[in-house]
């Protein structure tokens, strides 16, 4: 009997197969008993009919408890009413290993149990549930889509280091790590500075890896360890990478809609909202966004924003409510953005940067900019920020030897997956989330 994965079951209609997995759920209605078996690739309804299987197999039903490891054998049947469109008519069942204790996560709507902390304490088991399984499969699709997107456009993957001696995104969110005779180095906040070197060597590059921020923010959008994809392009202007960002977000969304329909359905995601994600995205300046906030405040909304400050989560949500797709906000004040961003030649109090804000309150998914490419200007900014000049000398070299305009951005994987899957918190879209209060399991 051929051993198959549930995901491939459609190719085996009317044939006898073996599935190896776990008991997800069971229910009985008299002479017919139903098992839901999961094998990691999917969930399958298995039907046992009294008289059609040997009695000793039929009676195993009573012994079965959640998450027992089992092997089922039987005939694949097309069944419209079964979830997934197929079911297995059981012929034989083997209990490979029994659960030693009651499974700690409820089988029905675990997301509805009030104690979220309990779910996260059992994260290693919770990921077996239907919704968490769906989210992690959407994450996988997003990650694959990103790599396909860049490969198809001639980008080379370039892996920056994780241990770094200096900051990229401000010195307040660095994680120090003891490092031999060096004393302290840091976990990277972003590979950007190294990617700029990569772009000068390989033209179009991107990185894809974990990044770290010692941010104590307890919001639905912040992790201390998160994954970022960062493209960097030589000779590209702000407009060029805005087009790239727009194309990337549309491509990822289309791929999820194309290949992860079932998962979106399990998550009750309103797909009409994702289908609206088409080019072009609205493009507004910081000043225009600030005006929107002012208008909303005049209408009586509770908005705590002063011109010149960065937008917080609440402000981003208010701005995004005006649009049915991500909105791109450009030209933020120089004072609230990092040292490497190039000032706008038309108004040097602003920088050539872009934040992409997702719809439905998911906040900033992309931050990017055109980089300062003038040696003297960059040196001046490094000094102004009080950054250790010698640590950035290699970075300044990129402006010394054939400096060219160049631009790039970073897309946060967790914020993107949270938005696409409709998850309520970014900690649900990474296998094992790291936050200020959670480092286990
Ligand atoms: O806007 P950020 O800080 O940009 C950079 O790091 C640039 N150096 C990227 C570049 O130009 N190459 O971060 C980029 C994105 C954010 O838009 C957000 O999606 C995500 O990374 N992000 C976080 N995600 C989860 N938890 C956090 N604490 C995050 N901080 C940033
Ligand atoms: Mg940002």
Structure, described:
- The structure is a single chain.
- This protein has two domains: 2-97, Nucleic acid-binding proteins (OB fold (Dihydrolipoamide Acetyltransferase, E2P), Beta Barrel); 125-429, Bira Bifunctional Protein, Domain 2 (BirA Bifunctional Protein, domain 2, 2-Layer Sandwich), CATH 3.30.930.
- The chain contains 13 helices and 19 strands.
- The protein has helices at residues 55-63, 116-121, 123-126, 130-152, 192-202, 238-259, 261-266, 271-275, 286-298, 313-320, 375-384, 393-400, 413-421; strands at 2-3, 16-29, 32-38, 43-49, 69-78, 86-97, 156-157, 163-164, 175-179, 183-187, 204-212, 225-234, 283-285, 327-330, 343-344, 347-351, 353-358, 363-370, 406-412.
- The strands form four sheets. The chain has an eight-stranded mixed β-sheet with strand order 7-11-12-19-18-17-14-13.
- Helix 4 (130-152) packs across helix 6 (238-259) and helix 4 (130-152) crosses helix 13.
- The longest helix is centred in the first third of the chain and has 23 residues, at 130-152.
- The two termini are 38 Å apart.
- The site of magnesium ion has 3 residues, from strand 18.
């Amino acid at each position: 009997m051929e051993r198959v994965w549930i995901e491939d079951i459609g190719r085996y209609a009317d044939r006898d197969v073996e599935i190896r997995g776990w008991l997800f759920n069971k229910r009985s209605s008299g002479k017919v008993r139903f098992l839901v078996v999961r094998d990691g690739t999917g969930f399958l309804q298995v039907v046992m009919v009294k008289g059609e299987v040997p009695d000793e197999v039929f009676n195993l039903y009573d012994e079965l408890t959640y998450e027992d490891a089992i092997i089922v054998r039987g005939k694949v049947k097309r069944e419209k009413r079964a979830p997934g469109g197929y079911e297995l008519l059981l012929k034989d069942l083997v209990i490979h290993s029994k659960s030693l204790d009651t499974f700690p996560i409820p089988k029905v709507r675990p997301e509805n149990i009030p104690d979220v902390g309990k779910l996260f304490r059992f994260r290693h088991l919770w990921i077996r549930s239907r919704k968490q399984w769906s989210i992690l499969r959407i994450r996988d699709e997003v990650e694959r889509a990103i790599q396909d997107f860049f490969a198809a456009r001639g980008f080379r993957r370039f892996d920056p280091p994780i241990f770094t001696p200096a900051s990229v995104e401000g010195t307040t969110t660095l994680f120090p790590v003891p490092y031999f005779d060096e004393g302290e180095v840091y976990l990277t906040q972003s590979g950007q500075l190294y990617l700029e070197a990569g772009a000068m060597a390989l033209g179009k590059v991107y990185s894809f890896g974990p990044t770290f921020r010692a941010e104590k923010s307890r919001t639905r959008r912040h992790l201390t360890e998160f994954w970022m994809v960062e493209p960097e392009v030589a000779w590209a202007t702000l407009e060029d990478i805005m087009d790239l960002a727009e194309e990337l977000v549309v491509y990822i969304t289309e791929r999820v809609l194309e290949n992860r329909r079932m998962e979106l359905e399990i998550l009750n995601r309103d797909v009409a909202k994702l289908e609206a994600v088409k080019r072009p995205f609205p493009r507004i300046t910081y000043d225009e966004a600030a005006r929107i906030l002012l208008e909303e405040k005049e209408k009586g909304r509770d908005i705590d924003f002063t011109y010149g400050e960065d937008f917080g989560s609440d402000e981003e949500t208010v701005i995004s409510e005006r649009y049915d797709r991500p909105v791109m906000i450009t030209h933020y004040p120089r004072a609230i953005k990092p040292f490497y961003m190039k000032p706008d030649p038309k108004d040097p109090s602003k920088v050539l940067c872009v934040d992409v804000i997702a719809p439905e309150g998911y906040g900033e998914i992309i931050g990017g900019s055109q980089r300062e490419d003038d040696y003297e200007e960059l040196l001046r900014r490094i000094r102004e920020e009080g950054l250790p000049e010698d640590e950035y000398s290699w970075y300044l070299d990129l402006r010394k030897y054939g400096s060219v305009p160049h631009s790039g951005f970073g897309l946060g994987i967790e914020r993107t997956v949270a938005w696409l899957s409709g998850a309520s918190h970014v900690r649900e879209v990474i296998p094992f989330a790291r936050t200020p209060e959670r480092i286990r399991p």
